[in-house]
Structures are given as C-alpha cells and as structure tokens.
Amino acid sequence: xxxxxxxxxxxxxxxxxxxxxxxxxxxxxxxxxxxxxxxxxxxxxxxxxxxxxxxxxxxxxxxxxxxxxxxxxxxxxxxxxxxxxxxxxxxxxxxxxxxxxxxxxxxxxxxxxxxxxxxxxxxxxxxxxxxxxxxxxxxxxxxxxxxxxxxxxxxxxxxxxxxxxxxxxxxxxxxxxxxxxxxxxxxxxxxxxxxxxxxxxxxxxxxxxxxxxxxxxxxxxxxxxxxxxxxxxxxxxxxxxxxxxxxxxxxxxxxxxxxxxxxxxxxxxxxxxxxxxxxxxxxxxxxxxxxxxxxxxxxxxxxxxxxxxxxxxxxx
Length: 316
Description:
This protein is of the alpha+beta class. The chain contains 10 helices and 5 strands.
C-alpha cells in the first residue's frame, strides 16, 4: 500500500515557475505550430500546451528539443513521427515545430497530507490509503480469478476430444486472422518481425480457433443442461459499462448495440461464460495457495491465455 501511495505522490508533483533552463522533469508551457514541407498540418497546432520533459508524451525528438530552453525563447524543433503512427500522412515523416516558450516550471514532490489527498478527491490521507488498499485487493482478486478460470478452461479443453463443426472453426479462424492482419497493418510489423512465418502463424491461430469453438460448445452445453441464463438486466448493466467507454457518443453506441444483434451477443457471451464458470467452480474442489505478486501476475503479463491479441471478450 505504501509503495502505491508513494507512486501516487511521485506522479503528481507540484510545479513552480523557474528562471533557469528546462531539464528532465520540468514542465514547459508552449505554443507551437507543426509543419510538414512548410505547411501546417491538422492537429499540429496548440496554445498553452504543458509538456513534461522526460514523460514521453510527445513524438521522439520533441521533448529533447525543449531541454535547455527558458521562458520567452523561440525555437524550431525537428522531430520524426513513428512509422506506426496512426495518421498515414504523418507516419515516418520528419516535421518542424515552431515553438514559443511561455513558462518553465520546476517540479517538486508534494507533501503527503490531507490537502494533497483532497486534491485527488479523497477526504484525508487515511481515506486515500483505504481507497488504494481497496483497488489493490480488487486487482489481486481479479488476477486470482482469471488464473483459476484459465486453469479450468485449460482442463475442459484438454479433457474433451470431439469433432468440431468445420464452419464454426473457419468462422472463428477468419475473425482471428482478420484481426491479426489488421493489427499488423496498423503497426506496420510483419510475421518476420515477430520471429515467425505466415504459415506457422496460421497454424497457431487455427489451434486457437479450435480451442475457442470447443470451449464455446462445452460451456453452452453445460449452461443449457443446468438452465443457466443471462437476464436482460445483466445485459443492460454490461451495456451501460460499455457505453461509458465512449463519452459524448452514448446515444450512438446504445443505438448501435440495440440495432445490431451480433454486437449485443458479444455483450451477453462473456456474462454467460462467467456464470457457467462460477457454476463449475462451485462443484469443484478449489484450494487457496499463497504466491508472490510476481507469480500471481506472471502468466497474465506474458499473455498466456489471451489468445494472442484477438479482441474477444472471452477467455477461451
């Protein structure tokens, strides 16, 4: 808990204007205009923009170009957008920024007191610690549940062998493969960059598709036999959580899901899956085991069980 509180303090420094040159950790407030081939480009202009040097919040070369500046300076900074940048017109391009420095402020660690806690929405340091404790416990519990769930699904998958409907496997594989190719196009990476080949990758993702179909059929059968259902209220609650991820677009997102049965099914599926898993776990013998944080998060961090990035809301 104390380590988490210390991180909160460290990531919320106080800034005070200074006369000296800007250095790593300082906040530089600037106006800037970005130009490509001498012409200003969309999204490349800002006024009173706060840039914390060393935070990595801007494209490579920009923050470095601000090191050593003082309030009142005018400077031209040359920087290059990453090859995988989301805007194709700027990806990999070198641009110039005309910068006016308005303020340089040094950072200092705030005092951990009730005033600091209040600035973050807590009533006191004690309440902030309780909030941090609650979040840590929630994270640990979620990680523990995910590991148990994966172990259960692995057991179901390994313990059942039956012929799968080819159409279902093909459909699932296509969904996975299309997502893989889309991600590669966006990141501008190839299979060779990831140390594999298209042929080997297809085999790997075909195995994942078969696993998902097998588990989907097994969970569906278990749920059906035991009359496990998902209520409209449960779907609506999950839909509200999804809608909250799109502030300002709530109505459009709501209408999309209500008018698209396939999308609404994607909301319902993980709820059903979790309820079936809970049912199985109630029947199973599950014992607790004390582990280190490193061991708890190991499989989660290395991506095992996440089916290599295919954006499903299931853990099959």
